[in-house]
Amino acid sequence: MSNPEQPRATQKAQGLADLLYRKWQPIKALSIFLRMFYREKDEEKRSSILNRLCDYFQIRKQLPLHYEIAKILEEQAQHYSSYDYGKGYLYQSFPPAHLRGLRNTETRIAEMQLRSYVSGKMVFDIGTNTGFLACSLAPICSSITGFDINPYCIQIGNAVAKYFGYTNVRLFTGRFEEVQEKATYEVILSFANHSTYDHNTQHTLEEYFQKCAAYCADHGLLLFESHFPGYESEDQLEKVFQILQTYFQVTKRFRLQSKTSGDRGRTFAVCTKK
Ligand SMILES: C[S@@+](CC[C@H](N)C(=O)[O-])C[C@H]1O[C@@H](n2cnc3c(N)ncnc32)[C@H](O)[C@@H]1O
């Protein structure tokens, strides 16, 4: 599943970050970036290269943070053999730091009206990835705890949370199958995590939703987002909902209409604990 080309490509991008941050040679960096972009055949990898390029040129003040993230991404490319959801850069965007991703965090939050559900609440984000949804919601929720099996994503999330001074964000590395939290939470985020493309999820759907329910406070909410329709068919999704409904009651369910291709067509649901 890991791509042997990925470490080289990310190392190259890190070299470009050096050119931009340390030596400020934008023309040289731009020409190397564009060469990488035009040689790349995979559409999502091309998007990731372009995202990185746009971010580097837009930010000046946040250079140290971007530089730190670039170093973590290089480490990830060298040492993390599992699937890379960011395809060489980032899966989630975080506009306050001028970080683009393959998924649009702001659009997701707006379309799902997430702020209205998490306002003043204690939130638990399963498979938080880089924690950018958590960081975006931090200013309005009481606290948000997120975890992910990928330690490099968590390092990135913690770097961003620290940079922005979000003291109510707690991100840690962990497998959901092994996580043991003492607390229960008023809102659980289960976004594209009930099964995972990287095969790192070993829970059955039954075990997964049972554990979600165990972490959900009485009268709490489970906010659920499906995978994109190309990965999870209508029939498969109905089976997921059947199991989910053993533990939760679905009060709202709709398809996301976002313009971002990674977001569009997914199903979002608001569920209360039974
Ligand atoms: C499709 S991404 C979704 C990320 C995030 N929830 C979102 O919607 O933006 C799936 C995430 O789950 C993580 N993951 C996969 N298996 C996991 C497990 N067993 N425990 C914790 N995290 C896991 C992956 O590393 C990845 O970041």
List the helices and strands and how they pair.
Blueprint (H helix, E strand, L loop, with lengths): L4 H17 L4 H14 L3 H16 L4 H17 L25 H8 L1 H5 L3 E5 L5 H6 L5 E6 L2 H14 L4 E5 L11 E7 L13 H11 E10 L8 H14 E8 L11 E7 L1
Parallel strand pairs: 1-2, 1-4, 2-3, 4-5
Antiparallel strand pairs: 5-7, 6-7
Helix pairs in contact: 1-2, 1-4, 2-3, 4-8, 9-10
The site of S-adenosylmethionine has 20 residues, from loops.
Describe the protein.
With 274 residues, this protein is α/β, with parallel strands linked by helices. It folds into two domains: 5-89; 105-273, Rossmann fold, CATH 3.40.50.150. Helices cover 45% and strands 18% of the residues. The chain has ten helices and seven strands. The protein has helices at 5-21, 26-39, 43-58, 63-79, 105-112, 114-118, 132-137, 151-164, 205-215, 234-247, and strands at residues 122-126, 143-148, 169-173, 185-191, 216-225, 248-255, 267-273. A seven-stranded mixed β-sheet has the order 3-2-1-4-5-7-6. Helix 1 runs antiparallel to helix 2 (26-39). It binds S-adenosylmethionine (SAM). S-adenosylmethionine is lined by residues 85, 92, 103, 127, 129, 133, 148-150, 153, 175-177, 191-193, 196, 198, 200-201.
Q: How much is the radius of gyration in Å?
A: 19 Å
Q: Briefly note the CATH topology name of the largest domain.
A: Rossmann fold
The main sheet orders its strands as 3-2-1-4-5-7-6
User: CATH superfamily membership of the largest domain, which one?
Assistant: Vaccinia Virus protein VP39
In CATH, the architecture of the largest domain is: 3-Layer(aba) Sandwich
- What is the residue-averaged pLDDT? 92
Q: What are the distinct ligands in this entry? A: S-adenosylmethionine
Tell me the domain tally: 2
Label the structural class: alpha/beta
Kindly provide the name of the CATH class of the largest domain: Alpha Beta
Poorly predicted regions are none
Largest sheet: 7 strands, mixed
Q: What's the β-strand tally?
A: 7
